[in-house]
Each structure stands twice: as C-alpha cells, then as structure tokens.
Known about the structure:
A: 14 strands; B: 17% strand
Amino acid sequence: MRISTTQIFQNGIDTLQRNQQQLNRTQLQLSTGKRILSPSDDPSGAVQSLQFRSGIERVEQYQRNGTMLEQRLNFSETVLTSVADGLQRVRELALQGNNATQTNETRGFIAGEIRQALDELLQLANSRDANGEYIFAGNDSLTQPFAKTTDGVSFAGDAVQRSLQVSSVRQIQAGDSGKRVFMDIPNGNGSFVVLDGKENGDEVNKGTGVVSSTAFSGEWPGDFTVEFFEDVDGELMYLIPDPEDPDSPLLGPQSFQSGQPIVYAPEDGDFSIQFTIEGRPADGDSFRVIQAEGQDLFRTYSELADALAQPVSGASDQARLNNAVNRALVDLDQGLGRLLDVRASLGSRLQAVENQNRINEDQLLQLRSTLSEIEDLDYAEAISRFNLQQTALQAAQQTYVQIQRLSLFNFL
Amino acid sequence: MLGIGTSGLQAFQRALATTSHNISNATTEGYSRQRVELSARPPERAGNSFLGAGVQVSAVTRIADQFVESQLRSATSASQQHSVFHGYAKRVDSLLAEADSGLSPGLRRFFGAVQDVANDPTSNTARQVLLSEAESLVDRFRFLDQRLGEQRDLVNGQIASTVDEINSLAEALARVNTDIVTALGRGGTPNDLLDQRDTLVRALAERVNLTTTEQEDGALNVFIGNGQNLVLGSRSNPLVARSLGEDPAQLDVGFGQSSPIDISRLITGGRLGALLEVRGSVLDVAQNSLGRTAIGLAEAFNEQHRMGRDLDGITGRDFFQVAQPEVLPSKQSLVPPTVTISDAGLLGTGDFRLVAVDNGEGDGGLDWQLRGVPGGQRIGDPSTVGLEIDTDDISGAVAGDSFLIRPTRTAASQIATVIDDPQAVAAAAEGGNVGDNSNALALGALQEDRFLAGGTSTLEGSYNTLIAEVGTRTRQAEIASQAQARLLAQAQAQRESISGVNLDEEAANLLRFQQAYQAAAQVVSVTSTLFDTLLSAVRR
Lengths: 412, 540
C-alpha cells in the first residue's frame, strides 16, 4: 500500500500515544494498588466492591453495638453481684437474729445493719451507667426508678428494657428492668404464706406456735384462718371456720400435736394445703393462710429489720420473732432465686454477644479478603505488565526517531 | 522541432510546479495530492505518416476517491460521537463512584449513626451525631446533583456552540459550493476548492452525522437528521439551539428559522449526537435515579419516624423534606395538574408526559394520556408508576397541550433535613419511654430493607444500580470509542494512501521532471544548433 509522509508521522505518534496511555494506566494502578480505577473498568466488580464495603461497614457497626451491649451487660452483672452479696449478708444476719442467744440489744444491732443493707440495696437499684442512665429503670431510663416512700420503696420505672442490634437478624436485650429484678418477687413458698395473729395485727398470738414447712398443690381456695382453742377437757384443738356459716367449720375441730402437719384437703376440693406448727399455740391464737403475692426485696429487708428491732420478752414474743424471721428467710431465698435467674439470663446474653462478635469477626475477615480479591491489584502481574509497556514505549520512541531521519531529500 | 522542445519545457515546468505544490502542502490538512496529466499533442500529417508534435498538459488532476472520502466522513462522525460520549460518561462515572464523593459512604455513616442512637437513645451526643450525619448525607445528595447539573450546563453550552459551529461551517460550505459551480462553469477542475469543501464537510461530520449528494452543477448538498437539508447548493439553512419543549432550561436542536421544529431526537452521530445522548441517557437517568434514592430515603424514613416518639414524648415529625414532582407546562398559561408521589417504592428513573387529546365525542372535551419519556409508551394508571395525578386541576388546555412530569429530577437537589433539635429524633416507639430504642431500631432496619424499585432494591442498592448502569454505558462507550478510533484511523490511512503526499515520491518526481526539463532544454538547444548550422550553410 502506498503510504504518505503524514501517515508515517501520524502512525508513529499514534503508537507513542497508545503506549503512553497504557503505561499511564498501569502506573496509576500501581500507585493506588487498585485494579479498578473507575467503575467503567469493571462495572459489576465496582458495584460488588461497593456492596462488600457496605457489608463491612455494617458488620463493623454491629461490632460497635456489641461492644456497647457487652459494657452494659457487664455493668449490670457487677451491680447484681453486689446485690447478691448484700442479700447473702442479710440472710446470715436473719439466721443470727433468729438465734435464741441474742439479746434485745444485739438484735437491735442486727436490725441496724439490715437497715443499712437496705439503703445499700436502694443505691444499687438506682445505679447509673456512664451515660447517666439508670440501668434498672427499664426504658424510663432518665428517671430515678426507686424511691423511699412512707409505705416502703416504690418503682417508677418501665418494665420494658431496650434491645440492641448485634447482627442483621439478632437483637439482644440490654439489661433488665428493676421491676423484674427487685419487685414482684413471689413470697412464702410461692403459693401461700402463713401469718401469725389476727388480721388487724393488734391481736397477737400468745402461744409459742412457730410455722415451719409448708406445701401446696391444686387451685387456691381463698384465704382462710386456722383458729386454736382449748376444749372442755383442756385439749388444744384447731379448726378452720367458715366465715359464711360459723356453726360448721371447713376443717376440724381437730386436736393439735406439735410438729404434726395440719392438712387442709377436703375430698370435694381440688387443692391440698399443708403446713406444720411447732411449739404450743395458746387458746385463742390464730394463723392466717393467705395466697402469696409479689413482694419487693426492700419490703423483705425492712420487715425483717422491724421484726428484729422489736424487743422480745417471753416465749410468745420469741415465737412471733421466729415466725417473722422464718418468713423473711423464705422471702430472701425467693429474692436470691430471682437474682440467680436474672444473672443466668445476663450470662447467657453475654455469651451470645461474644459468640456474635466472633461470628462478626469471621465475617469481617471474609468480607475484607473478598473485597481485596475484587478490587486489589495483582502487583506481580502489574509490574511485569509495566515493564513490558515500558519496553514497548522505548522501542516506539527509538523507531520513530530512526524513521524520521529517512528522506530522499537528504540525498538530493 | 522547437515547438516540440518548448512544449516539453512548458509541460515539465507545470509538472515541477505541481510537484512543488504537493511538497508545500505535504502537511496541509485535507490536501489531496495533484498530478499533471501529460498527453502527446495531436500529430501533424506529413505525407503518409504522422509526425509527433510534442507534449501537452491535458489536466491537473486531484487524486481523491469520493467513496473513501465518504467512508472517512462517517467514521469521523461515529468516532467523534463515541469519544465525546465516553468523555462525559467517564466523568459522571467517576463522580458517582468516587470513594469520598459518592453517596454510599454518606448513606452508611447515616445509618451507622441511627444505630448509635439505638444503642444509646438518651445520649444527646448520639442524637446530635445523627443530625450531623443526616446533614452530610443531604449535602452529599445536593453535591452529587449539583455536579451532575454542572455537567448538564456544560452539555447545554456545548450543544449551543456546536450548533453555532455547524451553522458557520454550513455557511462556508454553501459559499464554496458557489465558487466551485462558478469555476466548473469556466471549465477545469478547482482542485483546491474541492479539497477545501471536503475538509468543511469532514468538519461538519465531526459535529453531526450527515449524508451528501452532489448536484449536476457540482454543488454538494448536505442533509442531517432524517433529511433536513442543511446545505442546498449555494444556500445554507441554519439550525437553532433553544428550548422547544416544556422545559425552558433544556436546549433542543431546531430546524427552520421562523418556527423551528424540534429535530433533537433525529440527530445522531458527531459531537452533537453525543451531547444529546449524554444528556438523555446519562445525565437525565443519573439525576432521576439519584432523586429517586433521595425520595425513597425521605419517604421511608419519615414514615417510620412519624411512628415514633421523641425524647420529649412528642410523636415524631418528618425527618427529611423532599420536593414534589416537577410539572412543566407546554404553555405558560396552563394551570398544571397536582402530581404527588403515591408510592415511592414504585418510582422508576424515567419522566412522563401528560398529553391532552380530543375525547372524540365532538364536544371539545379532552382526554389526558400519560406517556413515558423517553420511549412514549402509554401508561394507563399513574399509580402503577407510583404517581397520583389530579387532572381536574388543569385549566386552559386544548388538544395538543402537554405537561412534562419529572417525579424525581429535582429531589436530590432539594432534599433537606427538617429536624434540627436532637431531642426531636423519635427513637422510642409510640408509648415507649425515653430509654426505648424500638423506633431507632426500625429506622436502622431501613438500611437493609428492600423497599425501592417495586420491592427489589435497598437504598444503597438503588444507588449501586445507577453506578452499574453508568459504568456499563461508559465501558461500552469506551470500547466503541476505541473501535471507532481504529476504524477512523483505517479510513484516514486509506485516504492518505490515495490522496496523501509522500515526500520521497515527490523528491523522485522532482528529479524525474528536472531531468525531463533539462532534456527538453537540450532539445531546444539542439534545435538552435541545427538552425545555426543551417544558417551558416546558407551564409556560405
């Protein structure tokens, strides 16, 4: 083919241009370390890399959420450990106070210590985290949840506690509401409580009857009273009067034997109530059997302290004290049980967060390595390409200069 | 014999002059080499035989091939189109996906901040950070839209200047046509004028795809679009660049001076074709798509936010503010319909035109037809494209009037945050307390919720789709532009191969004609010697 002089120049320049473009591109790739310089280099790769980047940031955010959650759960756990320690101490004090060797004075000291423990418990229940949120206030976290009132301690918080997102599909509750931790703890054996004395509280028992083990099954029939009296022979009897019809009691009259269980399980009823009274109730003493209800830990503490603070003179006072302390011990155990439940649940949540963190960690590693595969440059390949392109450009430059020298006019 | 010798001298002088002309124009753009065609003069009769009478210049021809030339022209149009398109597309491409300026990082940080509020709903800091991130995200939308708008302005400016260039080239072409027709009328071929004309046509072809036909008198007619005669003999018909549709800011290409008809759709190839295509298929789509993401974000976030409760216990308000669809009437006097977005999840990236047609009942009543732009496909029920159009509001319309409806075009430029008080972030669910984060969790979940594009795409996904679309178009344009550049180089090589000057060849010709000239001079000298011999013989 015939070739024009312009063409010779143009071809040379075109080749130089092309080589320079390629070299420049490789140089850019090498300096950025990226295979894809703009989405058009590899549209699907570019979008994929955006998706992976987004995935990485999301997982990183979940990690942040997880750390936050872990802090909160750990803090709750620390506070609840202190609460449990305090509870154990109060339990020991109750046992001590129950001991017949104690004097009114020493019992007074014990009562004082329990009142202190109550203040401590109140403080712990009003714990605040680093952000100033009350950790046991549920979602009403900026209001102090527990406050002393004339009638004990009231809860002003929220029963609902927020959850945090630790993966795209998993939310974990960040703590527990004080309502569950400190309030609404069942008392007695969880079904009923036996109180000594009459309902109005003024008329106390004069005997030495102390309630011990209790048992219940079936449907609660309604609260009732067990009344003791001496019959004409002077034998101690008991009966459960029917408030509707005083002439035909629900149970008894039966003769009383200390330590013998009192069983109230009529054949036509669908329940069985059983408890034991030790000692000897006096004529006219009564014991009220009432259905258990939620009680707060604060009340348990304060009632225990009140009972211990009351001076004891004589066997019937001792029996009353024993009854009160026994009830408190059961209630304390209930509180301890609730605390164990909450802490177990906290522990399992902490475990779950840790597991999730590990999963997230693995996921991050995987996402990052895939992202790198998509967008990072294969340096070995790029460097050898760079060398090749450099050589090509040099060759083009040299041949261009050589060709330009050739002209017939040089010989004219 | 003297005559023969002189004819040779004259002919070779012309040949040398032409060779010099070629050498001088070796680098002139569009120059076609010329060649002196020599032929023997008609012989003289001498008895039974013919005696040669020397040489004559029969023509100075221009070595050119009209087929190759027209190939070069179409290659030029195509190559220009693809390379200009690629240039603009690449800019949009990098703009959208740039790690620092793209939308994705902003979206991710915003939703990260939402989750931080969920982690700690009572923290004023977390709420403040969320508001700042929302502000950055909104800025990001506006920034991207503004950059796209700048590209649009640039494209519009280029359309105007390209149309001006086309007009002046067409005018020059018409003048050259006149000169050529005159020259041809006088006899002989005006080689350099023809070169000039080819160069002008090629310059036109760089700007717009065209077809040519040559008239019998030698004038060249140039047609563009689907047969609009840009140049007809010695007359050129200028194009106009101005708004011919509903949008006063959009430059269209019109043909005809007094009442121009819009031929934008018909223009293909060249720079003008590329500019129109970039505007329609890259910038429109990109701005609409960005707007759609903005609307999707605002509507979904607002909806969820309104379900919540803020730190002061007040029901959540709108978090973002977003523009209503843009409605542009074909006549300023028209009262437009009320267009609202009924379902952001159904929005696409196209625009619509609401056209008034006679209802055919002879009572002058109008039917309103909704059509897609571009494409023109009929849309029966606006709610299928996420819109609600109340045509009852329209007044002053007659058949043929129309409204251009752009549901998402301006959304990205006008999105704003409404909430500036950190307390007003509704992190709690309705009825929840200050520490409740349920609504913040629900807001955070929107990040991965596929509620756009008919429930197939997340917010980030819809933006990624745009990146992929523009990226693919850019990639295609790059490949096409490389291929067209090669085709153009080939066409140029072919033209150069035929019409280009080769200096070595001219040097050889120079030698050849010089020698021939010297030989012819020798003939004259010998003739003169012969004459002298004869004279001296007579004198004796």
